[in-house]
Amino acid sequence: MTISTIFLLTLFSVIYGSGATHHLFINLQTLSSDYSSNQPYRTAYHFQPPKNWINDPNGPLRYGGLYHLFYQYNPKGAVWGNIVWAHSVSKDLVNWAPLDPAIFPSQPSDINGCWSGSATLLHGNKPVILYTGIDPMNHQVQNLAQPKNLSDPFLREWVKTPKNPLMAPTSANKINSSSFRDPTTAWLGKDGHWRVLVGSKRRTRGMALLYISKDFFNWVQAKHPLHSTLGSGMWECPDFFPVLNSGQLGVDTSVNGDYVSHVLKVSLDDKKHDYYMIGSYNAAKDVFVPDEGLNSEFVLRYDYGKYYASKTFFDDGKKRRVLLGWVNESSSVADDIKKGWSGIHAIPRAIWLHKSGKQLVQWPVVEIEKLRANPVNLAPKLIKGGQLVQINGVTATQADVEISFQVSKLGKAEVLGYLTDPQILCSKKGSAVKSGLGPFGLLVFASEGLQEYTSVFFRIFRYQHKNLVLLCSDQSRSSLNKNNDLTTYGTFVDVDPLHEKLSLRTLIDHSVVESFGGEGRACITARVYPTLAINDKAKIYAFNNGTSDVNISRLSAWSMKKAHIH
Length: 566
Ligand code: DQQ
Hints:
It is a single-pass type II membrane protein. By secondary structure, the protein is mostly beta strands. It is built from 3 helices and 39 strands. A hairpin with a 5-residue loop joins strand 12 and strand 13. 2,5-dideoxy-2,5-imino-D-mannitol binds next to strand 1, strand 5, strand 15 and strand 20.
């Protein structure tokens, strides 16, 4: 790369920032670099291919005892472009084996790209994929592919139907041809017909268009979208699925009844976050009805950090619903090209409805615990205001840490005069700002002398006679390299600090800090690129920077072994 290319790249990244999306860098889509052998930021147990750009997880399914993951991939470079469906398989959602790309441009209906989509298991356990193709006019259309050989558990080869495209924008349906993409997993209605959603918008009204089919090939657009909201903009990667009203098990996407609620998740292109609503699916009217009082707008998020274009599937082996999501880089495009890759996937999460019915709970799939090694357990101890406790004995760049705090003197909590956006609250009150109760939590990727660290912490407020728990992930001190996106993230967690412990689990993996607060009621994923706190120079601490002492009732930490991924 020449100096001027580097300058241009830096300029681009300043102009566009590095949010959870893909920007067009036409000249860079095939730019390969002499990948540096010094790769402190490559992850050890988060999914990523050996090189190049990745984004959305596509068409996850379990078939022949194997998990199949497809994903948006640029085979030629470290920025978005030349998109194909790359393909990997796994027995445990942790270790993955790469296969050749499953779907790549080959027909007029996808000649300019094979974008996101989903898999459905038809009667007789026959997988089928619906995906968005970009046609010669750059219109977005929906296509179908089926495995060539159902007796191959690897499902290596996929055949596209000559009938493609099966759904297309026309002058009659008035669908906007650049806002028509990302078909969901289909579900069966009581009438025996298949239904599928496609993300779209009409002016600023985001919507999930509904299509119905008897045979999966001939699709008719329903009169009404399944749901739409004014002002939300383009709905990318919709996902629609039932969750049991109690318990942690998952159910097949076609299940409906009064023992389930339905979740509608959309990736809001305008906001670059994954939002969801909980409600019910009125099968007679084919509409989604959000629960009263919860949300007429999208408020709830899967993850309050960097996490986008996610998708769930029903794992019929373990009877659970599993969520996969893309975590974009927070580094500059110039740095991505230098390191030769961009994008990872979050650890697959089991997902279920919280017993309150008001939100979902997410927890890393249990299989990830197979990677835990060298357990370190700390006896319960008091951590005084201003105290740091180093967690020794684990590999600080590749670890899993579970910590729980108990607070007694809730009267010391800072009073919040008015409700503020939690992310703004976290940015204003970082880990260096003391209060009566908090901040307390973890410092990860901490360098000697603390010139660099990322802090994940709680802070408790008193607001209108209620205790309010804030969870923050503060990246502002994570790197001396200020070209990175150092945004602080935060959310309130629906826990009662009087009767419940404040639990935090953080998965640390070289350039990712994936945190689960309140036993999975709040998730925050962050990307960080320390310059000093790398390799054996990184440290992990528990800290309390509040004026009141708090009790660490549990602290368990493990080094994480490297997963076999490629
Ligand atoms: N990524 C795909 C689109 C989708 C977007 C293109 C979401 O199908 O809308 O790579 O990240």
